[in-house]
């Protein structure tokens, strides 16, 4: 145990090469140390901002998970400073090799505090707001909140713009510029504000749509390293401008449920003109419950429109996992609909979070049920006895919410339960023996392996699950779909 601890807490940055070449004789698979290394491989996501272009300041990393405004004790470690020196450039800590973000990083929304007073003037409250009509991020300082008890709170904000001076060209590319803001001299967003005539430009926004941001202190060391600034009034933000733009846009899209852009290679759903008035619309349900790979989402919408006039379905589902327990682990799910042997329907998807064979199998069942029309009779053939047992368990009307939350992959199971209830489906699960030369089951197994090679990942949107008032997440990387106590044991053992 002593050797394990001394090897894990290294005084230098642990690179991925060492992670991918773990000595399995010294650290067997699934030991505590191996799990720690696997989790440590994704530490780059915890160090970088949401866009993967910049490294967080140590004050943003060293936060108490239970009290985000409180810093953990201890000084800044040497490995962090060495990582900054070797992998970043400029005062913004811009990465020399940006990290490709392939995980569902959910933005952490921090709206301003809403006061119980009707008129409230906060001090030094800086925000960023996504202005949808102009498709741009607006920065500013809150002048006043108007908190009508019979309507939503709105804020009057002095508009500040990012207009770096020409002297910043010494930093090189614009991404390396300090995040400077200066007052807007006036634009078409200006709204007359009679309670304070000093600002040149004021705009209005709902308070809950704003995101609070931090400014950088103007100490002597910081100011001495800056070139000449021609503005009378200016301030510097603690995060890069591009990162804040990405952050507020993601907050906006997550809040209203906008799907990704439709790929040009993905065919749109085919609608028959003579049945257009009776066509069941499953696309809102699909886009509401699924996130991530846009091509997979629109393929489900297309399949849903092709089977709108049918009431009986037979699915063979399967999931596939490769390199389980290693940083290179991959997972895919797939199903085949076999009611019409001459016109087989197939679907596959890639999964990355909480990788397991059961997780892939459950996701295959969910994507199969979500395309079925109202009041359909569905037979699902699976080689997972665990899925059949859990399926019968969640449909028990006497099961409580607490027991549901203890089921592994409970968010996907809650989605399946909601789909069955919403569309009044009659679903029966059947057990088939794995690798038993059953044609369609072997076909689903082979196709599931191809799902691991897809470029993008499919996720369930847990925010739109009914009666799910709260969902635990970890470092904004995604929801926790395991029983909390069992999950916490692994996290504690890795600290």
UniProtKB/TrEMBL annotation:
<dbReference type="InterPro" id="IPR012337">
    <property type="entry name" value="RNaseH-like_sf"/>
</dbReference>
<dbReference type="GO" id="GO:0004523">
    <property type="term" value="F:RNA-DNA hybrid ribonuclease activity"/>
</dbReference>
<feature type="domain" description="RNase H type-1">
    <location>
        <begin position="309"/>
        <end position="453"/>
    </location>
</feature>
<protein>
    <recommendedName>
        <fullName>RNase H type-1 domain-containing protein</fullName>
    </recommendedName>
</protein>
<dbReference type="InterPro" id="IPR036397">
    <property type="entry name" value="RNaseH_sf"/>
</dbReference>
<dbReference type="Pfam" id="PF00075">
    <property type="entry name" value="RNase_H"/>
</dbReference>
<dbReference type="InterPro" id="IPR002156">
    <property type="entry name" value="RNaseH_domain"/>
</dbReference>
<dbReference type="GO" id="GO:0003676">
    <property type="term" value="F:nucleic acid binding"/>
</dbReference>
């Amino acid at each position: 145990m002593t050797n394990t601890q001394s090897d894990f807490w290294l005084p230098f940055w642990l690179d991925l090469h060492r992670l991918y070449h773990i000595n399995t004789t010294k650290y067997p698979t699934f030991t505590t140390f191996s799990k720690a290394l696997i989790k440590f491989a994704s530490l780059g996501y915890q160090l970088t901002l949401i866009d993967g272009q910049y490294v967080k300041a140590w004050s943003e990393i060293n936060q108490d998970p239970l009290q985000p405004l409180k810093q953990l004790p201890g000084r800044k470690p040497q490995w962090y400073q060495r990582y900054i020196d070797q992998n970043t450039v400029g005062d913004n800590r811009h990465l020399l090799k940006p990290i490709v973000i392939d995980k569902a990083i959910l933005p952490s929304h921090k709206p301003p505090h809403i006061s119980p007073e009707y008129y409230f003037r906060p001090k030094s409250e800086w925000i960023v707001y996504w202005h949808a009509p102009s498709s741009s991020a607006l920065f500013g300082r809150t002048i006043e909140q108007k908190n009508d008890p019979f309507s939503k709170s709105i804020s009057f904000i002095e508009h500040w713009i990012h207009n770096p001076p020409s002297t910043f060209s010494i930093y090189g590319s614009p991404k390396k510029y300090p995040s400077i803001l200066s007052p807007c001299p006036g634009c078409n967003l200006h709204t007359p504000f009679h309670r304070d005539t000093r600002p040149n430009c004021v705009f209005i926004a709902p308070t809950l749509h704003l995101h609070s941001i931090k400014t950088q202190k103007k100490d002597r060391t910081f100011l001495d390293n800056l070139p000449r600034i021609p503005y009378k009034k200016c301030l510097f933000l603690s995060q890069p401008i591009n990162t804040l733009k990405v952050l507020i846009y993601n907050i906006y899209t997550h809040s209203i449920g906008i799907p990704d852009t439709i790929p040009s290679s993905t065919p749109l759903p085919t609608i028959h003109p003579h049945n257009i008035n009776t066509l069941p619309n499953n696309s809102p349900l699909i886009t509401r419950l699924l996130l991530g790979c846009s091509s997979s989402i629109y393929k489900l919408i297309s399949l849903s429109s092709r089977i709108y006039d049918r009431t009986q379905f037979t699915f063979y589902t399967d999931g596939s996992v490769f390199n389980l327990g290693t940083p290179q682990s991959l997972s895919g799910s797939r199903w085949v609909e076999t009611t019409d042997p001459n016109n087989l329907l197939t679907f596959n998807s890639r999964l990355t979070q909480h990788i397991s064979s059961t997780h892939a199998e459950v996701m295959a069942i969910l994507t199969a049920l979500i395309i079925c029309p109202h009041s359909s009779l569905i037979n699902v053939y699976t080689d997972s006895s665990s899925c059949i047992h859990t399926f019968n368990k969640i449909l028990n009307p006497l099961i409580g919410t607490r027991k549901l939350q203890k089921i592994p992959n409970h968010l996907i199971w809650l989605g399946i339960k909601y789909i069955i209830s919403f569309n009044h489906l009659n679903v029966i699960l059947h057990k088939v023996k794995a690798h038993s030369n059953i044609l369609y089951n072997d076909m689903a197994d082979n196709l599931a392996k191809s799902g691991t090679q897809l470029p993008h990942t499919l996720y369930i949107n847990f925010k739109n699950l009914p009666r799910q008032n709260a969902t635990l997440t970890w470092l904004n990387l995604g929801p926790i779909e395991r029983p909390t106590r069992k999950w916490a044991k692994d996290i504690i053992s890795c600290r």
